[in-house]
C-alpha cells in the first residue's frame, strides 16, 4: 500500500488491462496493476480507481515505477480539477466524441433495468468494456434484440456522479455494445416522474422570460415582479418561489434578487444596465405640463392657444389623467411613472416616444403616429390605437386586455409575449406601403 499526497492507494496485479497499441493501431491486453484510492488508512472511504499498464503508464512492474505512475496520475487529476475551477462558468459534460465521424447514427434502446454498482466497478466498465462482469451475466438473458429493432439494454449507475452507461450484451456477460450517457440519473428521474420534467421546463421558461424582461424593462437598473403577475404567468399551480429566486439569481443578467410582500425586486447586473442620457431632455414639472395642456385646450376651442409640444421632454410622475391632447407632439418624449389614463391623443405624433411604468388605461390614440414607440411595463387596458401607424413599435410587460389595434400598420411591430386576440388586431397590416396606400384611399373624398 502506498501513502501519497495524503491518500492511501492499494494495488493488486491485473492481467486484463486494455490499451491501444500505437504501433499496430490495435487494442492489446496488458499486464499491470489495479489501483484503488482511499481517504483513510483503514481503506473504508474509497475515492477513486485507475489502472497502470506496463509499457503504457509505467515502464515495468518495479515499486519505483508504480509509485511514479501513481504520482503522475494524481498530478493529472489535480490539473483537470484546476481546469474545471478556472472554467466554472462554462458547462462541462463528459461525453465520448467521435473524431471525423461520417454520421452520428443512434440505436434505439429500451431500458429494461437499472443496476447500481460501486465507483470502482463503474470506472472499470468505462475503461474495460470487454471484461466479463457478474452483474452483466445476471442480466444477460434479458438484454437481447426485439423484433421491432429496439435493443433491450441495462442502465448502469453509481452513487458518485450523475452519469451512466447504457449496455446491451446480446446475451453475453460483457458489454458487447455500450455507450456513455451524461446526466443519466437526471434523465431517469424525469422519465420516472413526468411532472418533474414539466416542472423544470416551466421554471426555466419563467426564469428566461423574467430575466429578459428585467433587462428590457429596467428603470435605473431595477425591475419589479409582482406576485400576482407571476402567478398569472405560471402555467402550473406548484410554483416554487425559493427556487425561482435562486434560478433568477444564477442568471448573468441579474446581480441581486430581493423578496418582499409585493414580489421580487431585481437588480440588473452592471454589464446589462441600460443608461438613458436625459441630459439632452427638457425636464417638465407638473406645473409646466398643466400650462402646456391649458394652452392646447385654448387652441382646440377658440384658436388662441398653441399646440402642446412635449418633443424630447422628460415627464416623470406627471398626472395627465383625462387631458385632451389630440394632435399634440410627443416625438422622442419619455414618460416615466405618469398617469395618462383616459387621455386623448388622437392624431398625436408619438414617434420614438417611450412610456415606462405608466397608467395608460382608457387612453385613446386613434390615427396616431407610433413609429418606433416603446411601451414598457405599462397598463393599456381598454386603450384604443385604431388606424394608427405602429411600425416598429415595441411592447414589453404591458397589460393589453381590451386594447384595440384594429386597422393599424404593424410592420416590424414587436408585441413581445403579449397575446392579442383576432378582434384586437382585426384589419391590421404588416406591410407599411400597402397600409399607406389603403389609408390614403380611405381618406379620399367621395365624388
Structure overview:
Helix 4 crosses helix 5 (194-216) and helix 5 crosses helix 7 (241-249). The chain is 26% helix and 22% strand. The strands form 4 sheets. It has a 6-stranded parallel β-sheet. The longest helix has 24 residues, at 63-86. It is built from 9 helices and 17 strands. The chain folds into 4 domains: 2-86; 109-191; 215-272, no CATH class; 278-447, 3 Solenoid (Pectate Lyase C-like). The relative contact order is 0.05. The termini are far apart. The model is unreliable at 79-87 and 443-447 (pLDDT under 50). By secondary structure, it is an alpha/beta fold.
Salient structural properties:
single chain; alpha/beta; 26% helix; 4 domains; elongated; four-stranded antiparallel β-sheet
**Class of the largest domain in CATH?**
Mainly Beta
User: Which radius of gyration do the C-alpha atoms yield?
Assistant: 34 Å
What separation lies between the terminal Cα atoms? 107 Å
Structural class by sheet pairing and helices: alpha/beta
The fraction of residues in strands falls at 15-25%
How do the SSEs run, as a string of H and E?
A: EEEEHEHHEEEHHEHHEEEHEEEEEH
What is the makeup of the main sheet?
6 strands, parallel
Low-confidence stretches: 79-87, 443-447
Tally of helical runs: 9
By CATH, the topology of the largest domain is Pectate Lyase C-like
The appropriate CATH architecture of the largest domain is 3 Solenoid
Helix content: 25-40%
Amino acid at each position: 500500500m502506498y501513502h501519497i499526497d495524503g491518500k492511501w492507494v492499494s494495488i493488486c496485479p491485473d492481467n486484463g488491462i486494455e490499451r491501444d497499441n500505437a504501433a499496430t493501431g490495435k487494442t492489446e491486453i496488458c499486464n499491470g496493476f489495479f489501483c484503488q484510492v482511499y481517504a483513510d488508512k483503514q481503506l473504508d472511504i474509497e475515492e477513486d480507481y485507475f489502472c497502470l499498464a506496463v509499457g503504457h503508464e509505467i515502464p515495468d512492474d518495479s515499486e519505483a515505477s508504480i509509485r511514479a505512475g501513481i504520482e503522475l496520475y494524481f498530478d493529472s487529476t489535480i490539473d483537470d480539477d484546476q481546469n474545471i475551477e478556472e472554467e466554472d462558468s462554462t458547462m462541462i459534460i463528459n461525453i465520448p466524441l467521435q473524431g471525423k465521424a461520417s454520421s452520428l447514427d443512434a440505436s434505439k434502446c429500451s431500458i429494461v433495468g437499472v443496476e447500481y454498482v460501486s465507483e470502482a466497478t463503474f470506472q472499470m466498465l468505462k475503461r474495460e468494456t470487454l471484461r466479463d462482469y457478474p452483474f452483466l451475466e445476471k442480466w444477460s438473458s434479458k438484454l437481447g434484440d426485439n423484433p421491432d429493432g429496439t435493443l433491450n439494454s441495462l442502465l448502469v449507475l453509481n452513487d458518485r456522479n450523475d452519469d451512466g452507461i447504457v449496455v446491451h450484451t446480446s446475451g453475453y456477460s460483457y458489454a458487447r455494445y455500450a455507450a456513455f450517457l451524461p446526466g443519466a440519473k437526471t434523465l431517469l428521474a424525469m422519465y420516472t416522474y413526468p411532472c418533474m420534467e414539466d416542472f423544470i421546463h416551466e421554471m426555466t421558461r419563467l426564469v428566461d422570460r423574467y430575466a429578459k424582461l428585467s433587462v428590457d424593462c429596467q428603470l435605473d437598473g431595477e425591475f419589479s415582479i409582482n406576485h400576482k403577475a407571476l402567478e398569472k404567468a405560471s402555467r402550473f399551480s406548484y410554483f416554487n418561489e425559493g427556487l425561482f429566486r435562486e434560478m433568477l439569481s444564477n442568471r448573468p443578467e441579474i446581480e441581486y434578487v430581493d423578496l418582499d410582500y409585493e414580489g421580487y425586486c431585481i437588480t440588473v447586473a452592471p454589464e446589462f444596465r441600460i443608461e438613458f442620457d436625459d441630459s439632452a431632455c427638457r425636464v417638465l414639472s407638473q406645473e409646466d405640463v398643466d400650462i402646456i395642456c391649458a394652452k392646447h385646450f385654448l387652441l382646440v376651442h377658440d384658436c388662441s392657444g398653441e399646440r402642446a409640444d412635449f418633443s424630447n421632454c422628460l415627464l416623470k410622475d406627471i398626472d395627465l389623467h383625462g387631458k385632451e391632447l389630440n394632435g399634440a407632439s410627443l416625438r422622442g418624449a419619455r414618460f416615466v411613472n405618469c398617469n395618462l389614463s383616459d387621455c386623448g391623443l388622437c392624431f398625436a405624433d408619438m414617434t420614438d416616444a417611450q412610456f415606462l411604468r405608466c397608467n395608460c388605461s382608457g387612453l385613446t390614440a386613434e390615427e396616431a403616429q407610433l413609429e418606433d414607440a416603446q411601451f414598457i411595463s405599462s397598463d393599456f387596458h381598454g386603450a384604443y390605437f385604431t388606424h394608427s401607424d405602429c411600425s416598429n413599435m415595441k411592447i414589453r410587460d404591458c397589460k393589453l386586455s381590451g386594447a384595440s389595434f384594429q386597422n393599424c400598420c404593424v410592420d416590424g411591430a414587436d408585441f413581445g409575449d403579449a397575446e392579442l386576440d383576432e378582434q384586437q388586431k382585426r384589419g391590421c397590416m404588416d406591410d407599411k406601403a400597402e397600409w399607406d396606400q389603403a389609408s390614403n384611399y380611405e381618406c379620399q373624398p367621395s365624388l
